[in-house]
Structures are given as C-alpha cells and as structure tokens.
Predict the structure.
Amino acid sequence: MNLKSLDKRLVTILLIVFVQMVGAGMILPILPLYAKNEFAMSPTSVTLLIASFFAAQFVAGPFLGRWSDKVGRVPVLIISQIGTVIAFIALGLAGSTWVLFASRILDGLTGGNIVVAQAYVTDVTPRENRAQALGLVAAMFGLAFMIGPAIGGLLLEFGTQVPYFVAAGAAAVVVLMTVYTLDESMTPQEREALRAAATKLRLRAAFAVRPLMLAMTIGFVTQFALGLIIATLALFGEEVLFDSRPELGVGLLLGFVGLSQIFTQTALLPPALKRFGEARTLVVGVTIRSVGLLFLALTVSPILAVAGGMFFSMGGGLALPPTQSIATKAVDDSKRGGVLGVFQSVASLALIISIAIGGVLFSLYAHLPNQVAFAASILSIVPAVALGRYMRLNANKGETWAA
C-alpha cells in the first residue's frame, strides 16, 4: 500500500481514531489507581470497574456494527463519540463508585466508534489491502498510546479530575471533526443496496463460517491474555515497578508500547504480509506477543517491563490486523460492519472474563504479582499458535478463506 496514494477519507478516519484514542489513553494508567486511592476500591472491584466497559461493549458492539451498515458510518460515529464525551465528564465529576461504574458502562454501550471506524476503513479499502489498512488503524492506536498515557500522568499535577475533563475535550474535538470533515464512506445507492442485502449476523451464524470461527477464536484467546495485563498493569506498576508517581511511570511505559506499535505497523507489518501472507504473519505475531508476556512475568524493573511491553505490542500489531482482515473476508461485503461488531463482542467477552479473573488472581497472589503475566503468557501461546498453524496449513492446500 502506497501511503501517498491513500484515500483522503482513510486519512481523515485515521486522524479521528488518533484523537479519540489519545483521550482514551489519558485515563488508561490513572483510572485503576484513581478508583483505588480516591474511592477505596479493592483490586477486585477495580478490575470489575474496568470489565464493566467491555461488558457493555459486548452487548452493544454487534448492534452498532449492523446499524452502521444500514444508516451509514458517520451518524453512528457521532452518536458513539457523544456518549464518550458524557462518560469522561461523569468520571471527572464522580462522587461515588456507582457513578464510576455508570460512566464506564455508558462509554461501553456507545463505544462502537472504533468498530465503526474499522468498518469505514474496510469500506474505502480494496479487499487485498485491508490487513495493511487495518494495520494503519493500529498504528494510530500506537501513536495515541505513546502520547495519551504520558499526558494523563502529567495532568495529574493539576488535580486528579483534570485528565478526565481533558479527555472529554479531546472526544468533543473528535465529534466536531466527524461532523465537519468526514464524508460518508458509501453513496446513498450503495447504502440502499447494503440495506437490501443486510441480514443480522448472529453469533451462531458467525461461528458456522469456519474461517470466521477460527479468526474469532484466535481473537478471543489473544484478547484474554491482554485482559489479564490490562486488569493489573497499573496495580503491578504501583506494587513492583515504581516507588513514586506510578501513574506517570505506567503512562511512560505505555508510551514505549505505543512507539513499538507504530514501528510494527509502519515498518514490520507491510513486508511481513507481502512475504508470509496473513495466516503466517498471524502465527509470528502471537509468538512474539507471548515472548513479551514472558518478559513481563519475569520483570522486577522498569527496563525489563519496557522490553516486555514492546515485544507484546509488536506481536499484537502483527497478529490483530490479519485476524480482522480474515474475519471480514469470510462474509460478503454487506456484513462487514456486522462481522466487525461480532468480532468486537467476542474480544470484549474475552476481556470481561480475563479482567475479572486478573483482579482475583492479583488479590490472591498479592505476594507474587508477576503471576498474572505468567498465566497470560501460558494461555496465549498454545491455542493461538495451534489455530494459526491450522489456518496456514489449510491455506497451503488451496482452501480459500473468503466465503
């Protein structure tokens, strides 16, 4: 894919994703410690708070994806982004734990913006370039998470609520960008044809398509490992890695993770896809990801944590875009948004379960905080590589992955 020849709509949606994720990245390293220190929540309760977002997203994801297929991407993007603005403001104004939970649930219910953005990308990108285009979305994630968490940690100097209000401001900017700069990805005629062809893509129907089932299974396993890390990273940073200002330390750590994500999407993913294809690239990605998790399991210092985080991010950057691309190619084009919504729901289900388990493990093994990362490493490698190998072998036999 020649970056100079990118569709202007793709450039615009990538910019929107970047600004959106900068806001989300600001609160990532500070929300768990905010809930623990300001509201006296236990580690288990903190991880349930994090999981509540993904639980709501699990419910709403398929609906928002299908809705965007029918009415267009832009209206759904606007509505979901407004929900994010309200949710961030509520976090900043929260005076009790139920407000914290309500704000995360609201953001999850309306949090189809990334799903819809990915569907938008598939709309304006030829099928053969989808993995690379989705990789550019992941690069925007990396760039945003290189900047956002560090900004969130620094903003704490001005007050514990300030990062949430600034994140709300960033989300409001995204709403304005979407309204005034983003054109719809489909013409009225294409939307009418899509509405005529569209049918609900239920989980049972999705799993009946073997390539889609395999892609979603891999997505579930890899996101399960990610959830264990998300649940405990800030708590682990406070307990093990940083003696003071753990929010800033975790934010900077995530900044290095974001930098490796950018490098992966711009320098590693395109040649890997060209040389190895999607299935083999996926296998390489999950292997590197598991090595990163093993580093985190063995770390007792910020330096090793940075190395583990960078390998983890690089592996995920190589694995996720091919997985999503395989999923979208497994159905006809009228269901692109729906399949990404179902994929998001499966990923959210994995995160819900693993985040809740991560909090319990961290509480039970408080004297061994590295055990969560070790469990994630073990769970990540075996089934993901086995499924990836199965896909590669069938692809070598000439089986098509597009239904």
In short: Residues 69 and 215 are 21 Å apart (CA to CA). Residues 3-396 form a domain with the Growth Hormone; Chain: A; fold (CATH 1.20.1250.20). The mean pLDDT is 77.
